[in-house]
Amino acid sequence: MTPKAEFFGRIDDYCLNLLDAKEKQEFERELTTNEELREEVQLHKDIQAAVLEMDVQTLKGALDEIYQENVVPQSKNGSFELLEELDEIEALKEELTFEELINSFDSLPKVHVYQHEKTSNENVHRFYEEQIDGTEANGIEEEELNGFDMEGLDGLEEAIMEADILNLRDTLKQVAKSVEPQYSVEEIDAYLNGEMGDDILAEFETELKQNGALLEEVSMHKDIESAIEESDIMKLRDEMRNIMEAETSWNVSEQSIEDFIDGMLEEDLLEEFSAELKENTDLMAEVSLREQINNAIGEKDIQSLRASLGDARKSAEKKEVKSIVMPQFNLNSTRFWRNSVAMIIVLLGLSGVLFNNMQSVDRTYDNYFETSTWASERSAESNIDVFQQAKLAYQNDNYQSTIEVLNKVPDSSDEAFVAQFYKGMSYQNLNQIDKAIQEYSKVIDQGNNLFVEEAEWYKALCYLKMNRKLEAKQELLAVIDRKGHYENDAKAIIRKLRYNIK
Amino acid sequence: MISYTDAQILKGILRHDNLILQYIYKQYYYKVNYFIKKNQGSEDDASDVFQEAIIVIYRKLKENDLIFEKSSFQGYLFSVCRFLWLKQLEKRRIERERLNDSLPYQEDLYDDNLVEIVDKNEKYGLYQKHFKTLSSDCQKLLQLFFEKVPLKDIAKIMGYKTEKYAKTRKYKCKELLIKRIKQDTEFKKILEDDT
Fold it and tell me: How large is the ipTM?
């Protein structure tokens, strides 16, 4: 496949006779077989001819004037630098050099030669060859040229030449028609505003009746005008967009969501709520987020309830819902509300939890990491003993010793990030939030590991706990950027943050 | 949850009442979202369709052409959303037989006028989209012109020295707008639909 630009370049080169012999041969062979190319070349030639024709006409007029003043323009004249290409014309080259051509010719025939070189074929050039000796240019018009004294030419060439010129003229007319300037925006506007002068108006209207394209153009102008006048619609659209961006898309109150999670929603409301929950994915995410938060900050009674439901938890198999703390907890809670098991939970609003009830958050940390998993599949191969020990300690909630064991893994180790992450978790459990953040930061800085997203997530939670909302927000945004497991939860928290800051 | 009557909702849409619009969004959006996602659409498609459905209803209201004899606001909204989405699917050459109808819609609401308004809304929406991409200067200028504010006043409002400059500037803006519209592939599709 030849790229389009190159394709056009080729055709241009061919029309301007810039191809070398081999290329030209190749191109012409292609030309005989490829009709599309032939048409394209013809079009290029026609366009060139049309464009050049206009140049030539104006030039001619100008030259006539100059001629009458007996000033013959020199070849250095800017316009004629185009003639450099003349030396490409084989037929001419045989008999005279470029220099000779420049010096022995008057400008006008040169322009014609140039033009025909561009637009026509060898026959025309022959015609000029015939003229070279005798013809003086006197600002001959194209018509005169056609009717030029042909006696000296032999019949065949004359006929071909005629046909060429006629053909060219027809094409020129067509080209001229197709590029006929459409009315400008200005004129169409004037027409639509009734500001068009009577004489042009009549002409415009006749054109309008015949010219479908113009009609389309005018009606588009009208439509645009009415469209822009609809400022109310544009405003309404903006308003809708704002609402859809800023508002939650569920139709239940916060109270209902909380009641639902508590299993305290009244029968009829419950039905309605469940129906919406089935289809509304946003609501689903919200419910699960709130449940997770509740889990995380739940009080002692919840912990004991959870303990008693431990067996049920173990059999939980669904892993869709994400945890604000650690994966396993979710499974359970999701399952619980799905099964409509009534859970008596002391409910705390998220904002209260995050910013006011630090005490309760602290108290629950020890407990809720109780069943969190050690993701051994992500751990490294070496340092097995150390990690085994740490895992045991971690699983037994012995965070201090977890940290001590993991401290044996040097920061330079390939698996340092594993140790750092669980040290972070342990510090967080021990409520040494500052240190936890430090460990998470190391994991994040290392970058190339499976813990980064989680580290960012927990770091954000740490900041939330310290009530450092700006930093928390930044971490949450990073989590959202990863478009991973915690994306929606992070979004939800940011939304909550926004409301709470207000 | 406060609920509104159909009449209140319609009045709210006419007035662009933010509370009512929020109510509509909260009340009905998720169903439309669910429907569209079930039918090869995305979240963005859903919000586009929902938004344009409200605009279509607004247009109908403005024309005094909306009476719920056979339906309710909800039924009408869903029917319009479904119709808009069908139109999109047709454009994307997806068979309508495979449509997973989860919206309670009413076929008999699809009258000629709705089709017309939807087409107009599509075309105008496109023009308005590109209008919004113009500089605010350009937008204001064009709007003043189309509201038939005298040239003299326009020059004054916009702080131009001469009327003539205001006029030239307007042509420049309009030319830019038309160029952008014509370059839009959506525009070509709309033209194809028309013919």
Answer: 0.71
